């Protein structure tokens, strides 16, 4: 059995895709030996493309207002326990300036779907940041918008956009979201973003309620099809004030194994070892890098608001200064033989990859 599973992994490295039933088979038979085999292969692929560099992105969580009501998310609109905040344009600028002085060359502006941040307001922020830091990449992560809106934001200076698809199975999608949201629109947004020219990121939670092996296989096949520049995955972690507050979290083993598989499916992908991974295990992010990830996203949000951007319970790094976060992370990355890179860390598109 073990030999047959390893052969499937070899085929995946070669072809970058497997039939859905083979993905399901692999996921049903995760073992320490199989994970180690996958991690070694995935690390080799990542090293051959990006070397020992791990890219950093400074995350600025600028609003926790959200008009959506995703059942898993701590900042959903129905969570009346959430203390809402919105950073001012000056606060956002100061966070980026401080990040720049620490060496960050990519900023990720992430927030809930907050109507206050109209295209005009966001464009003003983008233009100001691009003017001040022309050598930096600007990434947005502000949910579903119209093509016109995405285009305006791109023209104002946004280079990249993160929008996790959350699950590529429509039944599962409707289990995680209210009827006002649809997988169809989510996927259309992703194709639009790519079409406009953004470096685009998709992704999903591992172990979200009702997720099956078949649904994950659909996620992997969708990722190959979309071929995004970035993929964000992390374990689902329950948040006590949401409808999924009593559900089980996703596991470390499955998340690490999936990071390895995604590296094989999209060899050049920019793949973060996420904060959620660091939350379910003290060495989660280091293990994520060793499984094939190559990005970390330290928190640059002002300290006063960090505890309010609680997508899930017990989120790490909410008490530290940005400089502490960076110092801590670079120590962690060096301890496993990698180094943090200060460069923009653009996606490398090789000739033969779609
Ligand atoms: N556990 C883990 N990840 C979560 N996210 C939202 N809520 C949770 C949770 N409870 C993820 C979603 C979203 C990203 C910003 O955070 O995948 O796209
Ligand atoms: Fe934030 Fe370690 S990365 S304290």
Textual characterization of the structure:
There is one protein chain. The protein is an alpha/beta fold and 354 residues long. Helices cover 45% and strands 12% of the residues. It has 14 helices and nine strands. It has helices spanning 2-15, 20-28, 32-50, 89-102, 119-132, 147-155, 170-176, 183-196, 213-226, 252-265, 275-280, 284-290, 303-306, 322-335; strands spanning 53-56, 58-63, 106-111, 137-141, 160-162, 199-206, 230-235, 295-296, 339-341. The strands form two sheets. It has a six-stranded parallel beta sheet. Strand 6, helix 9 and strand 7 (230-235) form a beta-alpha-beta unit. Helix 1 (2-15) packs parallel to helix 3 (32-50), helix 2 (20-28) crosses helix 9 and helix 3 packs across helix 10. The longest helix has 19 residues, at 32-50. The chain is globular, with a radius of gyration of 19 Å. 47% of the residues are buried. The structure holds 5'-deoxyadenosine (5AD) and FE2/S2 (inorganic) cluster (FES). FE2/S2 (inorganic) cluster binds at residues 298, 317, 320, 324-325, 328-329. Residues 298, 317, 320, 324-325, 328-329 line the site of FE2/S2 (inorganic) cluster (FES).
What's a quick, concise take on this entry?
This protein is of the alpha/beta class and 354 residues long. The chain is built from 14 helices and nine strands.
Keywords:
binds FE2/S2 (inorganic) cluster, binds 5'-deoxyadenosine, 6-stranded parallel β-sheet, alpha/beta, 9 strands, 354 residues
């Amino acid at each position: 059995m073990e030999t047959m599973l390893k052969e499937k992994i070899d085929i995946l490295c070669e072809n970058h895709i497997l039939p859905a039933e083979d993905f399901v088979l692999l996921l049903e038979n995760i073992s320490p030996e199989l994970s180690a085999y996958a991690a070694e292969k995935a690390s080799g692929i990542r090293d051959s493309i990006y070397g020992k560099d791990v890219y950093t992105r400074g995350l600025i969580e600028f609003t926790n207002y959200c008009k959506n009501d995703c059942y898993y998310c701590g900042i959903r609109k129905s969570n009346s326990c959430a203390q809402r905040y919105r950073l001012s344009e000056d606060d956002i600028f100061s966070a980026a300036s401080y990040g720049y002085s620490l060496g960050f060359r990519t900023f990720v502006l992430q927030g809930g779907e907050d109507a206050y941040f109209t295209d005009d307001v966001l464009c003003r922020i983008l233009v100001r940041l691009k003017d001040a830091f022309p050598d930096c990449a600007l990434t947005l992560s502000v949910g579903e918008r119209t093509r016109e809106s995405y285009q305006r934001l791109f023209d104002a200076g946004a280079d990249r956009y993160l929008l996790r698809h959350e699950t590529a199975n429509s039944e599962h999608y409707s289990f995680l979201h209210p009827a006002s949201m649809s997988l169809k629109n989510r996927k259309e947004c992703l194709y639009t973003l790519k079409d406009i020219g953004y470096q685009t990121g998709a992704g999903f939670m591992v172990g979200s309620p009702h997720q099956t092996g078949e649904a994950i296989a659909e996620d992997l096949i969708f990722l190959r099809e979309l071929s995004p520049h970035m993929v964000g995955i992390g374990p689902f972690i329950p948040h006590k004030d949401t409808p999924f507050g009593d559900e089980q979290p996703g596991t470390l083993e499955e998340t690490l194994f999936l990071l390895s598989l995604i590296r094989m499916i999209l060899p050049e992908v920019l793949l973060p070892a996420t904060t959620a991974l660091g939350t379910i295990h003290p060495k989660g992010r280091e293990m994520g890098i060793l499984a094939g990830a190559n990005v970390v996203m330290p928190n640059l949000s002002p300290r006063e608001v960090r505890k309010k951007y609680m997508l899930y319970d017990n989120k790490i790094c909410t008490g530290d200064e940005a400089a502490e976060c960076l110092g801590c992370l670079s120590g962690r990355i060096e301890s496993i033989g990698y180094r943090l890179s200060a460069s923009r860390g653009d996606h490398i598109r090789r000739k033969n990859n779609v």
